[in-house]
Amino acid sequence: MKKYIAYPFLYDDPSDLKCDFEILTDELASMIGLLRAFVNQNYLRDELEKINELVYHLNPSLRTFVSVTQDDLDWVYERYIFYKSENENLVKRFVIPQGGICSGYCHVIRSKFKSVVRLLYRHKQNGNEFDNILFNFFNLLSGYFFALAIKFNKDEGIAEKEFISKNY
Question: Can you tell me the distance from the alpha carbon of 80 to that of 45, in angstroms, rounded to the nearest whole number?
Fold first, then answer.
């Protein structure tokens, strides 16, 4: 069976969330790579490649050590602020996650990053310690991809549609 196994940690104890974290971050890196294939601007393709590499550096963080730095986090934050400020007049409240292909991928990616944060929280609640920079990175990456989704829609001339909840 070992010669057919896709990943050596797939059969780890189900309460050990390290493998789940690695699979989820691998999925995110794959989605970022797919998004990148649809992007025409070279500077943005380069930026997404760097983000993707950071996600892959984050991937083994629970099993080994955290290799990303505060400088890496600060760079992502600068990019997030850039896109957020560029589009701040377009979004005042919640928006429906829709639009063009790139925006759609960004919305899926930002949502998946929230799933990583929840998984990290459960891992910590199970008594595991890790550097809190992981929470900061994954929360920030969710915001970054939201801001990027708004940018892509704006660039394509697609208006955001505000979501008005019946519950709140």
Answer: 15
Across the chain, mean pLDDT equals: 91
The model carries a pTM of 0.91
SS3 149: helix
Per-residue pLDDT of 24-47, as tens digits, reads 999 999 999 999 999 999 999 999
Whole-number Cα distances in Å, 94 to 125, 146, 154, 155: 30, 11, 16, 19
Query: CA dist 113 to 2, 55, 91, 147, 168, Å?
Result: 31, 10, 20, 14, 24
Count each helix (H run) and each strand (E run) in the chain, helices first: 5, 0
Q: Which amino acid is at 104?
A: G
Distances (CA, A) of 138 to 6, 68, 94, 165: 25, 12, 20, 26
Give residue 89's pLDDT: 74
**Other C-beta atoms lying within 10 Å of the C-beta of residue 81:** 13
Distance CA 162, CA 168 (A): 14
